[in-house]
Amino acid sequence: MTMSNHLEHSFFNRPVLEVAEDLIGARLIKDGRELTITELEAYDGPSDLACHASKGCTERTRVMYGAAGVFYVYLCYGMYWMLNIVTGPAGYPAALLIRGAGDISGPGKLTKALGIDGSYNNRPADPKTGLYFTPPETRPHKKLIQTTPRIGVSYAGPVWANKPYRYLLTAG
Predict the structure, then answer these.
(1) pLDDT band for position 4 (50/70/90)?
(2) Which of 18, 109, 113, 130 has its CA 20 to 30 A from that of 33?
(3) How do residues 86-138 score in pLDDT, each as one tens digit?
């Protein structure tokens, strides 16, 4: 794939659940390595109690309130970097956590395998950054995309913890 084929700002500047459905099966590119996105989770704004933005705009979450198509990368449990891509209009904090790509399952394992750390926070998903997305060679059929509740968000209460905001690309 050519660098000019990358997913641009306008792709991400839509509601998070629309972007999630279209990003599953796309490719994550890091330093020439291409991995098909197989799992992600949506976090949809300040009313989503599982979303970091539910606590308001803080130094940590400020990037989520900015432009779509920018990475939100944070450290979890003091040892795992989490890679997210900001979606939607500026001012509305929403993002997608990339949980799996290629044969790598688990967001911490993914960032470790690809050498992604906090230096990518607030950087655009763009070939110049060295980390970006390209569309899938063939779009996966909707029957191959499964949605389930997100992992590890019981603290958000039953309404938000049970939303089917986790997207999985299944083997047909």
Answers:
(1) low
(2) 18
(3) 999 999 999 999 999 999 999 999 999 999 999 999 999 999 999 999 998 88
Provide the pairing of β-strand 94-101 with 33-44: antiparallel
Give pLDDT, residue 79. Answer: 84
Count of alpha carbons within 13 angstroms of residue 122, beta-carbon side: 7
List C-alpha distances in Å: 15 to 18, 45, 136, 152.
Answer: 6, 10, 20, 23
**Structure tokens belonging to residue 111:** 């960032």
The answer to whether 150 and 113 have CB atoms below 8 angstroms apart is no
Return d(Cα 36, Cα 30) in angstroms, integer: 12
Q: DSSP characters for 30-41?
A: ETTEEEEEEEEE
Q: Where do the domains of the chain lie, and which CATH numbers do they carry? A: 3-127+140-169 (3.10.300.10)
Query: Comparing C-alpha atoms, which of 126, 155, 150, 130 is closest to residue 20?
Result: 150
